[in-house]
Automatic annotation (TrEMBL):
Protein name from the UniProt record: Glycerate kinase
InterPro entries named in the record: GK-like_C_sf (IPR037035), GK_N_sf (IPR038614), MOFRL (IPR007835), MOFRL_assoc_dom (IPR025286), MOFRL_protein (IPR039760)
A Pfam family recorded for this sequence: MOFRL
CC terms in the record's Gene Ontology section: cytoplasm
Reaction catalysis annotation: (R)-glycerate + ATP = (2R)-3-phosphoglycerate + ADP + H(+)
Source organism of the structure: Arctia plantaginis
Domain MOFRL-associated, chain residue ranges per copy: 9-249
Annotated MOFRL domain residues: 356-469
Lineage, highest ranks first: Eukaryota, Metazoa, Ecdysozoa, Arthropoda, Hexapoda
Similarity annotation: Belongs to the glycerate kinase type-2 family.
EC number(s) recorded for this UniProt protein: 2.7.1.31
MF terms (GO), sorted A to Z: ATP binding; glycerate kinase activity
Alphabetic keyword roster: ATP-binding, Kinase, Nucleotide-binding, Transferase
């Protein structure tokens, strides 16, 4: 096993995360001229003369977003409230911005709910001469939990957990969250009327849908009210709902009109930016690097199987048993969302280099066991299992794979993800570790903690950013 490939995987992933550090994204997107009090965001100008600026934020990346905004706008800021994950606070504002921790292990809790109430109370008091700057990123839903009465936070959290464990994807989860929430689904912007509202957003959802990122607190909710009920019934959970949730789901209310003319939403960071940086670093390390998709979704086991099929197609190309034209056609049979065959369009011949395939997105795990893990660790272990079973197809190659979350948190663990490879299962047996058992128990974290003393875990700590996950496959031809 080539240790250098593992180091390369870590370096490529690190570069992808660095590119989406929120302070870098803010400084690139936001400019302010104190002389004429002109604020410029993504090329669009806003006049702050005679305006009071307030800031609220929610998510894993918003602490560093807010810090950079403080530098840019300085004393123009009147007040701010920022909701951040437990364990991420490392800064005390010298201005009037308060940072509050909550949502331990990315789960809504009383601390996050109290912060959400404070944000609600702040925005309700704003007027026409006020500008509300809203900072949003992944994790924002858990950090802005304020259920519609009479629903309790415990009731809402239990439902979302049941949906997630049943295999509901992020879009389905947020559809339900919006319907049950007092700030999400555009309600934060509604409550801020008549103030002007500008949101700066780091996307953690495939396709960058504004209404779903952090459950869209400043984006008009155009869902049919019955959509949330349909999601819940799809997973056979409706009959188990408490009376409070049923009453909110079925009530016919006239929501306040969404203030479209007063609201601007800007996506300033996404998975695509992380992939572009990863590609640049892979090429710097002398790999033939291809970015194939930033829209990967699906069940973890299904994605692992498709990734092994994908790897096999590129191995055939490197062995010159197929052409680039063949590969282009065969890629269309791979069931991975967003595969971009156009990256092969201008390739004239095979590069005589090791190959690095980079993809991104967010997959799901149907939890059946009582173990500890997350989708990225589970994917790395599933990939290792399937690629090991097909070892004869890869006899001439070293195959290594990294799956990790850009937020540095994979499930309720201290790991961002893990690394897998084709001989992992065989080597695990020598340590009396049964990969199938750990997979069935959804216990990938404890597998990687024990396997080779944890050396194949990817542990970064909180990165204070979040643009979904990065998946990296390295294919190295063995020397004869």
């Amino acid at each position: 096993m080539a240790r250098s490939l593992v180091n390369d995987l870590r370096q490529i992933f690190k570069s992808s995360v660095s590119a989406v550090y929120p302070e870098n994204l803010i400084s690139r997107s936001v400019k302010y001229n104190p002389a004429n009090q002109q604020l410029t965001i993504a090329g669009e100008n806003f006049n702050l003369q005679n305006k009071n600026v307030y800031i609220v934020g929610s998510g894993k990346a918003v602490q560093n977003m807010a810090k950079e905004i403080e530098i840019i706008l300085s004393s123009k800021i009147k007040q701010g409230i920022i909701s951040i994950p437990v364990g991420s606070s490392n800064y005390k504002s010298e201005l009037k911005i308060s940072y509050y921790e909550g949502a331990k292990n990315n789960l809504p809790d009383a601390n996050a709910e109290n912060t959400a109430k404070a944000i609600r109370d702040l925005v309700i008091g704003l007027g026409r001469d006020d500008l509300l700057l809203v900072l949003l990123s992944g994790g924002g839903s858990a950090l802005l939990p304020l259920p519609k009465p009479p629903i309790t936070l415990e009731e809402k959290t239990a439902l979302i957990k049941s949906l997630a464990n049943s295999g509901a994807d992020i879009k389905e989860l947020n559809t339900v969250r919006k319907q049950l929430s007092d700030l999400k689904g555009g309600q934060l912007a509604v409550k801020a009327k008549p103030a002007q509202v500008i949101s700066l957003i780091l996307s953690d959802i495939v396709g960058d849908p504004l209404d779903l990122i952090a459950s869209g607190p400043t984006t008009e909710n155009e869902d049919d009210p019955s959509k949330a009920i349909k999601v819940i019934k799809k997973y056979k959970l409706y009959d188990q709902l408490p009376k409070s949730i049923k009453s909110v789901l079925n009530e016919v209310t006239c929501e306040c009109k969404f203030p479209r003319e007063n609201v601007k939403n800007y996506i300033i960071g996404s998975n695509r930016i992380g992939i572009e940086a990863a590609l640049a670093e892979a090429r710097n390390l002398d790999y033939w690097a291809l970015g194939l998709s930033n829209m990967v979704t699906g069940n973890v086991k299904d994605v692992a199987i498709e990734y092994v099929k994908l790897t096999k197609l590129f191995c055939l190309l490197l062995e010159e048993k197929s052409s680039i034209k063949d590969l282009t056609q065969n890629l269309e049979t791979i069931c991975i969302p967003g595969i971009d065959v156009s990256v092969l369009k201008n390739i004239k011949s095979i590069e005589k280099k090791d190959l690095c395939l980079i993809l991104g997105g967010e997959i799901t795990v149907e939890v059946k066991g009582a173990g500890k893990g997350g989708r990225n660790q589970q994917l790395a272990l599933e990939f290792s299992n399937f690629v090991g079973q097909a070892n004869n197809d890869f006899a001439k190659f070293d195959i290594h794979f990294l799956s990790a979350g850009t937020d540095g948190i994979d499930g309720p663990t201290d790991a961002a993800g893990a690394i897998g490879y084709q001989n992992l299962v065989t080597e695990a047996r020598k340590e009396n570790l049964n990969t199938e058992k750990y997979l069935n128990e959804n216990d990938s974290y404890n597998f990687y903690k024990k396997f080779k003393n944890g050396s194949f875990h990817v542990i970064t700590g909180h990165t204070n950013t979040n643009v979904m996950d990065i998946h990296i496959i390295i294919i190295k031809k063995k020397e004869k």
